[in-house]
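User: quick one, sequence for these tokens?
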């Protein structure tokens, strides 16, 4: 059985390698208020004299209803359209998954929660719910969502009854091909899935038979079997044993399982993945009109060298091109990437130059929030500017970036030895009971005026965090 911390580590590694995909089942949508399969078919079961709570083969149950209606599935189509077309509140799990840098999603769900959450996070999503959409890609897409059982807006073609499954390879077989390819080349996290779906079982078994012990490893999170109220111990032991055997069978097809006692633990796992993933990215905040007590050349060399060493540690850097600091961040990053024959792209350096016209200035807060959302660590350097009267003042922009970083839960590293607003922030952060989550920043104190020593202290902190 896989431990939660091991799963978190594995998921972060796969995200870093742009290799993680999500497979979402009905359980992911239930939290938003949508029905599961049993409750979806409850009334239809009553119509044909069956008790849905006694049935395990729900696909056959749906087929029985269609048979009783002379092969007419209009009631099932109407049911799918009515049940899954309603607007529901996106769950926290959907929001976290949408924020993570994941570009491949698969689902057997008919609802629109996944695409809605991706769009609300500012991503361009390419939705594919029928085979005609598979060969066509949306330009500059951020994520692709495969709805292998169809969509509520096209309920006549949704996969639900036994006929649909028996003809799947004829009518929607291209989804098999696409899923098989992703299962071989990516690592999947299965969420809210019971694995009772024949199509999933078909694909996993074919991969196992083809690749045997060389099959890729995937992951899933399942709820532990808990004893029900008034349940006999023997019945509980039976269900517990059955789950153990089921988990062993998942392992046979390359899926490692993590058990949770409460569904809230899934959210906690996803939040920890997001936090750990973000802590691989550092936001460098700084502005300097005046470099005293250092020279401009010393500061530029310090910032450039610091940036190169940060990249060398395996971090990604985000910067907003702050006055007197941003250009040195960029030059240091470009120097490191060129010398190491690495691409100059957002896998290493994320640039967000501030728009300077009047309309653009009104968007600076939103711009800062976007920049900082990429990172889990924020470093603050110097922080001064000239006001409209030409007087040297502390940078209110750096102050705002500090407040946004703190609100986001970033690890805060104000380098007090560089003075100005960074010194103010260091003093604020160092006060006892100030309410900030922090690491020890004594080695970045205002009385340390050696830039090389400050650089080594920053790098030491980053190594500890990493």
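Assistant:
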């Amino acid at each position: 059985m896989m431990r939660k911390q091991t799963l978190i580590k594995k998921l972060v590694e796969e995200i870093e390698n742009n290799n993680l995909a999500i497979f979402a089942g009905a359980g992911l949508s239930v939290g938003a208020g949508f029905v599961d399969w049993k409750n979806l078919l409850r009334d239809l079961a009553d119509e044909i004299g069956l008790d849905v709570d006694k049935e395990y083969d729900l696909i056959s149950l749906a087929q029985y209803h269609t048979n009783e209606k002379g092969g007419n599935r209009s009631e099932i189509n109407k049911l799918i359209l009515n049940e899954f077309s309603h607007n529901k509140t996106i769950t926290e799990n959907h929001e976290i998954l949408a924020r993570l840098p994941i570009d491949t999603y698969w689902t057997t769900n008919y609802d629109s929660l996944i695409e809605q959450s991706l769009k609300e996070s500012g991503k361009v999503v390419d939705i594919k719910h029928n085979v005609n959409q598979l060969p066509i890609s949306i330009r500059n897409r951020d994520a692709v969502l495969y709805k292998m059982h169809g969509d509520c807006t096209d309920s006549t073609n949704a996969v639900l009854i036994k006929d649909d499954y028996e003809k799947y390879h004829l009518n929607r077989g291209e989804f098999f091909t696409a899923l098989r390819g992703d299962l071989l080349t990516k690592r999947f996290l299965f969420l809210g899935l019971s694995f009772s779906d024949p199509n999933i079982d078909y694909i996993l078994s074919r991969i196992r038979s083809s690749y045997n012990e060389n099959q890729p490893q995937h992951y899933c999170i399942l709820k532990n079997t808990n004893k029900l109220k008034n349940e006999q111990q023997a019945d509980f032991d039976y269900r517990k044993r059955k789950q153990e055997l089921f988990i062993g069978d998942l392992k046979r097809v390359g899926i490692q399982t993590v058990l949770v006692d409460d569904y809230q633990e899934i959210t906690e796992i996803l939040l920890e993945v997001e936090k750990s993933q973000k802590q691989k990215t550092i936001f460098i905040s700084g502005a300097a009109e005046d470099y005293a007590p250092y020279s401009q050349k010393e500061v530029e060399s310090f910032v450039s060298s610091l940036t190169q060493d940060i990249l060398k540690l395996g971090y990604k850097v985000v910067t907003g091109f702050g006055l007197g600091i941003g250009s040195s961040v960029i030059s240091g990053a470009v120097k490191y990437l060129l010398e190491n024959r690495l691409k100059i792209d957002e896998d290493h350096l994320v640039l967000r130059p501030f728009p300077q016209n009047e309309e653009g200035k009104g968007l600076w807060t939103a711009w800062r929030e976007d920049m900082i959302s990429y990172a889990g660590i924020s470093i603050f350097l110097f922080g001064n500017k000239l006001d409209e009267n030409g007087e040297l003042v502390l940078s209110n922009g750096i102050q705002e970036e500090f407040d946004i970083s703190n609100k986001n839960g970033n690890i805060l590293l104000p380098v007090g030895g560089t003075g100005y607003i960074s010194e103010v922030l260091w003093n604020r952060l160092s006060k006892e009971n100030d309410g900030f989550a922090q690491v020890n920043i004594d080695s970045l104190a205002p009385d340390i005026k050696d830039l090389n020593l400050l650089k080594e202290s920053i790098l030491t902190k980053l190594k500890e965090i990493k």
